[in-house]
Amino acid sequence: MYAISAKNLTKSYDGKTNALNDLTLTVPQGSVFGFLGPNGAGKTTTVKLFTGLLKPTQGECTVLDLHPVKNPCDVHRLCGVMTETARMYGQLTGMQNLLFFAQTAGMSRDAGNERAAELLKQLDLWDARDKQLSEYSTGMAQRLSLARALVNRPQVLFLDEPTNGLDPESAQTVNSMIAALADNTGTTVFLCTHQLRYAQDICDSYGIIDKGRLIAGGNLETLCSDIGCRVKAGFRLSEGDSLEGFDADNGWWQAELQREEDMPKLLKKVIESGHDVFEARLIKPTLEDVYFEYVEHQEVAE
Ligand SMILES: Nc1ncnc2c1ncn2[C@@H]1O[C@H](COP(=O)(O)OP(=O)(O)OP(=O)(O)O)[C@@H](O)[C@H]1O
Ligand SMILES: [Mg+2]
Questions:
Q1: What are the chain's domains?
Q2: Residue 161: per-residue pLDDT
Q3: Phi-psi region of 218 (alpha: psi -120 to 50; beta: other; left: phi over 0)
Q4: Most CB contacts within 10 A, which of 186, 194, 217, 238?
């Protein structure tokens, strides 16, 4: 059983254009899936469809084999959702908000209290637990919103830009929590984000969506090979020296390799041809490099 699955999932808000077009994907249990794409690509729409906040125009989706529209209660019991629209109560304190949501999720008062305290401490909100939410800063409210999504220990967690508006330290805390959730508790995470560097650290696989269509999917290696993003060899030589057929980049001479395994032979060749090599390195494509390749490629194709 997949944690998350969509088949030909399509959503039109206006009956004319599709905000989401024919999305087919699966996410295995216990993995962290990064859902990436420009503004307006359809990420939030997808999360809303998976969590039953919207009905598909066509196609279907399931979470742990359950249909969000047919079984909204079961899906909500097993899922946690954090979106920009998931509001809490401004006149209640952080603690009261979490307790309220713990109890609506069916937890006892004691279990809810314990879980709320644990999350408030983990997310550095313990000192603000008795403050009204309306007095929280944006980043504090954002962290409380994550705590709310986690209060019922969900098996599947949908996070729509969870680090939006967080300072770098808080963003790091949230990212470590997400990674630990998948590692320690087997929680499946569906993460919409624009922060590609963080995504590369915590996601196992990705989907790239643009204008409602999935344009790429897989782990970083697959994404790289599908679009021909290759690893590069880089050499730093003595000043004034150069390498024919290589590109100069900030004091480094770089060339694409067919395969990583070609590096030792190339290094040997460069040395044997009389160059002094001060440093040599493999430059692997990052998620950011690959993302831009796909999105730009898509623009050219249009
Ligand atoms: N409630 C709505 N009514 C009408 N159109 C909508 C609604 N919500 C979203 N859309 C449209 O659907 C498309 C996809 O929007 P969506 O919010 O899913 O994008 P997104 O990938 O989450 O973007 P962002 O990165 O900006 O959050 C956009 O063209 C948007 O204008
Ligand atoms: Mg969005």
A1: 4-224 (3.40.50.300), 230-284 (no CATH)
A2: 93
A3: left
A4: 217
CA-closest residue to ligand 1 atom 8: 45
pLDDT-based confidence at 158, cuts 50/70/90?
Answer: very high
Which band of pLDDT confidence, cut at 50, 70 and 90, is reported for residue 85? low
Q: Does the CB atom of residue 18 touch ligand 1 within 6 A?
A: no
Nearest in space to 8 (alpha carbons), one of 62, 68, 60, 70: 60
Using the predicted structure, report yes or no on whether residue 60 has a pLDDT greater than 70.
yes
Residue of the CA atom closest to atom 25 of ligand 1: 39
Residue 164 CA, ligand 2 centroid: distance in Å: 11
The verdict on the CB of residue 41 being under 6 Å from ligand 1 is yes
